[in-house]
Amino acid sequence: MRTFNEAAKAIFGKSGETLGETERHVLDRVREKRPVSVDTNVAFSAGQTFGARLADGIARVGGSWGFIIGFLLFLVLWTGINTVLLTADAFDPYPFIFLNLLLSMIAAIQAPIIMMSQNRQAARDRFEASKDYEVNLKAEVELIALHHKIDGVLLKEIAELRNEILRLHARLDPQAGQDAGRQDREP
Asked: What is the pTM of this model?
């Protein structure tokens, strides 16, 4: 088995010290004959805090049709109660100033939570792209190693066939076999 530096030079064309962290990780996994692929959902979720999971849940609910329809029903109910049912003693009469205050507060809280969730989604996308790169790099390394192995086998077979042809040629025409042997030795 090659040393780490020999493998790095043969596969990446640079020394082991100049390899990046991902290349080093992949090369180690190749040499150990271990996979580099992981379940990115499990790996990413393992590092999330309670607050991150909560923000993702709020963003998931706030961006759903169920929330939009439920909120529309709430608005219709609020305005209906304050205009039709409680015409004399409405707790938030038209122009619904208290409702506007509540909506502004919800929007002020919900917008940063959704932005946090979007930032985490971008981080998740980068994490998945990094894992995809590792898997692709390992596949390339494995293909290069397989290509080298096949090339070695083919070169060996070609050399054996050439020797066999020379041997057969020498048996058919002893003088021609000696001439061919001399030509191989001459530069």
From this structure: 0.62
Mean pLDDT of 126-134: 90
pLDDT for the residue numbered 161? 94
Residues whose CB is less than 8 angstroms from the CB of residue 56 and which lie 6 or more positions away in sequence, other chains included: 48, 117, 120
The mean pLDDT value for 127-146 works out to 88
Q: Which residue has the higher pLDDT, 186 or 147?
A: 147
Task: Give whole-number Cα distances, 54 to 17, 108, 113, in Å.
Answer: 42, 17, 9
Q: Whose CA is closest to 113, among 178, 175, 45, 57?
A: 57
Which residues contact residue 98 at a Cβ distance below 8 angstroms, ignoring those fewer than 6 apart? Answer: 91, 92
> Residue 134 and residue 62: Cα distance in Å, rounded?
35
d(CA 172, CA 185): 21
In angstroms, the CA 155 to CA 143 distance is 18
Q: pLDDT category, 70, cuts 50, 70, 90?
A: very high
CB 114 within 8 A of CB 96: no
